[in-house]
Description:
36% of the residues lie in helices and 25% in strands. It has 276 residues and is of the alpha+beta class. It folds into 3 domains: 3-92, Ubiquitin-like (UB roll), CATH 3.10.20; 100-177, no CATH class; 182-273, no CATH class. The termini are far apart.
Amino acid sequence: xxxxxxxxxxxxxxxxxxxxxxxxxxxxxxxxxxxxxxxxxxxxxxxxxxxxxxxxxxxxxxxxxxxxxxxxxxxxxxxxxxxxxxxxxxxxxxxxxxxxxxxxxxxxxxxxxxxxxxxxxxxxxxxxxxxxxxxxxxxxxxxxxxxxxxxxxxxxxxxxxxxxxxxxxxxxxxxxxxxxxxxxxxxxxxxxxxxxxxxxxxxxxxxxxxxxxxxxxxxxxxxxxxxxxxxxxxxxxxxxxxxxxxxxxxxxxxxxxxxxxxxxxxxxxxxxxxxx
Length: 276
């Protein structure tokens, strides 16, 4: 089925009401399936697809960028799909050749990575995501984030970098790509924002936490209950800790991009689990 026909099928994308992330993901998956009939497309979560091409190559794709573009102009849904499919076809022809300037670190909870690898093994696949441990609860997953899509990298890809070099490069790219980092009061605690996609990844930007700019009672304590949430308080701020725990539990349970409601404390240059 041609892309023109696919775009005609998606005339509903011009509706007055903007699709939610969940609805957008479903519509996008159906459109990509129609445009790439030789590929297997599956929805893994809100704004997250699994695509297996005709050569058997599996990719986990994040639709953050396409969705942001769509919300700015819903009538361009068809064009967004068309460019996405073209980019996918191009990436297949240039397999293994990445633009290093677009590699970024994504913080995920460890259970997410375990469940993903278990699911792949259950399907008889040996593919593993390119990831490093951050602490006992969190991992760093590396991804390629360009103008049309975001996809997680696998251990099979030749980056020509050591893990130490990869992490340094990814953090450098993240700092360059992020908009201005802002902090505001959120019910008695600090809420850090940086565009809505990489807030948890700010834990990797050490100068934010070591420079002394963040003033709290005691040591810095954070929570990253969702992909777009980073809460900050102090280890000696009893009311702040209580509120952070409440908000973290709420966002983890109710948000579409939940991570963990665990709190982490910054000590000796690293974040570790914070006890009660």
